[in-house]
Amino acid sequence: MQIGVLTETAPFERRVALTPESAGRLITAGHSVYVQSGAGLAADEDDDAYRAAGAMIGKNPEEILGNIDLLTAVGQLDQQTAAKLRPGTAVVGLSSPKDGRGPAGVLVDRHASFFALELLPRITRAQSMDALSSQAMVAGYRAGLIAAERLPRFFPLLMTAAGTVPPAKVMVLGAGVAGLQAIATAKRLGAVVEAYDVRAAAAEEIRSLGAKAITLDIESQTSASGGYASEQASDAADRQRKALTPYVAAADVVITTAAVPGRPAPLLVTAQMVEKMRTGSVIVDLAADNPNGGNCEVSRPGEDVRHHGVLVHGGRNMPSQLAAHASRLYGANMSAFVLAICQDGVLVSTPEDIAADEIAAACCVLLKGEFR
Ligand code: NAD
């Protein structure tokens, strides 16, 4: 199979869909990989590294798109790129066109297929392909570092001749993959960390990292289905915010990472709650670049907003801020996925074959121009 990698075109995107290492894995399995010249540069991967892995380099997107059966991507394709796909090309990426926006119409016209990695089932066999988790881990780590860098105080306890400095109090809201990595990062930097998640099962994971698990005296604690949280009713969300208010007010840093797949991010920290925090405190909202707003009412994606003396950082494509390792992990997920949806070196393409494979069936949103 001929597999392509283009330079990503979405704003603020620095990742690449396959690194030389992951391209090499596909080449070893018998596939050919065509990479647009410079596609990996923002993630510190140059053309020579791809050539050394056995990939071919093309000058422009047209040269790649004219040769491939499958395009690997990170962000949403732009209209122009989608329009240049050879009829019947398959695309694997993180941004499902199923909502009818973006280049969905063009993909349909090109009789393209689309496999959306964010729809991967959370089963043991799919763990090596779990791009949402690998990228959330990167985002959580970055959130911890950004908080430490923005806070005008130390994270660790320091005993000096000039006096003792108490450790920073960090509160992490949402303890999924990103939240747990934010907890681990803040702990490594010496902060005292506590965390809360709506899933009761998260408490044990929080404690295993040496942080304190907060239990709120409300009835909204849920167990998740398939490892994902479900959306709360609005009165439960109100009770949750009320119960969280004293914890947020007492924290030097609040890192919010709460998400509900396929739904808007829950609002956990209102402007009023921010106003109760101490001047100089910091909030990092990982959910800020959600189109419907983040976990904090005053956050703006990619901006540091000052609200009543509190600095609120809105995350914007956090994995891209660590593009080399984010791409390495993403490329490993991508190559594992591509190998999993091939039979005898050819991509599964009949409705029957797709339906027969749990992973392909969950991720295939568009098959030869028809939405499934
Ligand atoms: P996510 O990105 O969908 O959400 C992040 C976290 O926000 C979740 O833990 C969720 O419970 C929490 N959240 C949602 N609404 C909230 C609210 N109102 N208040 C507080 N917290 C709220 O989740 P995720 O990081 O993708 O993972 C969720 C869980 O699934 C984790 O326990 C993770 O370890 C597990 N997981 C399992 C697999 C697997 O293959 N079995 C793979 C990845 C993750």
TrEMBL record:
EC number: 7.1.1.1
Annotated catalysed reactions: NAD(+) + NADPH + H(+)(in) = NADH + NADP(+) + H(+)(out)
Pfam family, one: AlaDh_PNT_N
UniProt key word Translocase: yes
Family membership noted in the UniProt record: Belongs to the AlaDH/PNT family.
Protein role: The transhydrogenation between NADH and NADP is coupled to respiration and ATP hydrolysis and functions as a proton pump across the membrane.
Protein name as catalogued: proton-translocating NAD(P)(+) transhydrogenase
